Amino acid sequence: MGSASRGPPPAPPAPPLPAPAGDTEAGRSIESLRDQEEAGDYTPWLGREFGSELEAYEFYLNYARKVGFTVRREYANKNKKSGTISSSKYVCSREGFKSLDKRTNRSKTPQPDTRTGCKACLTVRRNNGSSKYEVYGFEPKHNHPLFVPSCANPFQRKIVDIQSSEANTSSNVASACEPESRNYVLGDNAVTSREWQRPLRTRRQQEIKCGEAAALLNYLQYQSRADPLFYHAVQLDTEDKVANTFWADVKMITDFSQFGDVVSFDIVSGNNMDLRPFASFVGFDNYGETVVLGMALMYDRTVESFQWLFDTFLHAMSGRAPSTIFYRQDAYVGMAISTVMPDTSHALCTRHLKQTAKGNMNYLIQRGCDFMKEFKACINDYEEEMELFTSWEVMTSKYSLHGNVWMQKVFEEKEKWARPYMKWTFSAGMKDTQLNERLHSDVRDYLRPDIDITLFMKHLQKVVDDRRYIELEIEFSSRLKLPDFKIRAPILLQASEAYTDMIFQLFQEEYEEFQSAYIVSRDDSGPCREYIVAILDKERKHKVYGNPSEQTVSCSCRKFETLGFLCSHALKILDTMDIKYLPNRYILNRWTKYARCLTGPQIDGRKVQEDTTLEFSNRYQYLCPVFVRLVARASECEESYRALEQCSIEMCKKVEGILQKQTSIDASASQPDVEDIQVSLSASATDNELEHAMNYSSNKRAKKTKKKGRKDKSQTRSCIKEWLQNKQTLQLEQPAMQFSMLDNHIQPGTDSEGLPSPFPMGQFHNEKMQPR
């Protein structure tokens, strides 16, 4: 056991633990434990006594939550005569090592190892004289990084009072058994709630049920009151009726600032006027999980309406446009994107193209010909332009399709779907709009017009919260996993420290393939060397350029420019140039474990200023989430609350002094009009619609619908995840990585000298790449 002094060490105050109901001895013991916690006494020391073994376990469990690790019981010895527990030991969940699987043939991919041999523990034994349990062993040091409180084990977290009060007033759509960790404290980057009206010059195409417009606007207004950072906008038609709406909460705007480089857009109903025209902007994060970036209801689907939608989306995201946007083949959507975001690359949903081809060319498929096989090959297989042209000409001649209008239109848009052109566009592995379709399928039963729109909005929010909870679970589980190395190499050790598990597996496969790469020819005459690289048993060759002095490499397959990590051909040349670590420029921020930490409320180290008249608004947008996080953190205990209160008084005096000084220097300077930022909601709905809303029944319930069961194999995965779906690791596991001992006072989520770190965590921020 580690050394520990007797007597309680000083500890900061901690929020109280909820006391269990009942008057049992265990309940009274834990109530006394709660009194100790309120006094800020939650750190173990040798000789500390507890009324019961359960109280000792709850005490150590609460201590683990605050420090940032999870706990399991190592053993509990019982007295054979009395049956009472005589001694117990609680250890860190990462204690010990995973046993080596000695089987030669394993049918399944082994589970990732989470054990690091951590020695942190607490041991208690029963004092026969006092019948209490005292601490006689305590080791505080861990040999692994600790978790921040927001990423603690979702199954060992306690609900706080404010969360329980929110749960009591939640919608009846949500389950009564919702995990408490689905309440979020968010706000890395956000904008203020705002209604923005740009009237249509025509009447909306799709009618809204009587009273729904007012109910929708009232719901958005309620969200704005509950969350000052909630953004929403409304577009009216020529009759001053609601035509389109868009909204995004602070989490969506924060996710866009971090993972908004590639976005997928889709509308659920299409031409089906019997469903609500729900539209969504989605992407995926550094773990390959879906993130919702914005939502809309589009009752008018003209070019002007789509221009308004994308312009509003751009405004909500502080003027930053995505690098690439995927959408279904739609002329109106394409025209609107080109107008509003001219620098954004267009990408058509290849899955929708194939489905449309089946419908348009059904007469060929019924003959039993190979049209679909050849059409899919044109989309997926050919990397060079001449190969695509030749194959397309052969296919159209073979099936006499030169005069087919749809085929001509598809080929005219080849830059939006064909690989020879798409390899010049950063896609992060996205190929279609299946992420949107998965989200739409979860809310489709609530899109019928006979369902109360408020009930639909609440169900939609529940679906979004469920996805965010999954993100939290994956974030937690990934931090426990140790990398499974197929080859122990310096570059793989570096990659395992930087990349998330999913990207590391893909990178490791590229490194494994690099072992089979060979150089066909080379030209070392200039400072930028040229190589022709091939892979054993593969016919295609790739041209790679390398510069040893600048440590740069570029391959004709353009995997890095398209996906964000280096290919096997580039790794071969790096090895040839004796570069054993990845240069930082080739570690893309969005795929690292620290993607959410590094980006923050800024974008590429600066705030996007698209309009100088919005400087006041942008300053507010930047500072508001910063102080929201600070206030939330300071409210956890009385001491930090008082400290922040005192600082706020001094800060207010300093700010007022600066403003008064600035005013005296330039008395004619105009003051920003805050009222121009927010428009009254009452002007969003017409008098006629509000009058109907008075008679609208808010208690209308949705008819019971029977959801079709979905098999696991039909669940949508991102293209990155599909590549890993059928991969199996057949090699025996290597011995677990050795970690040096870390002091338990290290703040969770920070680097330490004991951990191998080939690069500082903040190093990626200035090297963030925006591939085009």
From TrEMBL:
GO terms classed as biological process: regulation of DNA-templated transcription
Keyword Zinc-finger: yes
PANTHER family on file: PROTEIN FAR1-RELATED SEQUENCE, PROTEIN FAR1-RELATED SEQUENCE 10-RELATED
Positions of region (Disordered): 1-39, 688-718, 744-772
Keyword Nucleus: yes
Transmembrane intervals: none
PROSITE patterns according to UniProt: WRKY, ZF_SWIM
Major localization listed first in the record, in broad terms: nucleus
Name of the protein in its database record: Protein FAR1-RELATED SEQUENCE
Residues spanning the signal sequence: none
InterPro entries registered for this protein in UniProt: FAR1_DNA_bnd_dom, FHY3/FAR1, MULE_transposase_dom, WRKY_dom, Znf_PMZ, Znf_SWIM
Basic and acidic residues bias locations: 25-37
Lineage, opening ranks: Eukaryota, Viridiplantae, Streptophyta, Embryophyta, Tracheophyta
UniProt-listed Pfam families: FAR1, MULE, SWIM
Keywords, in A-Z order: Metal-binding, Nucleus, Zinc, Zinc-finger
Domain WRKY: 73-147
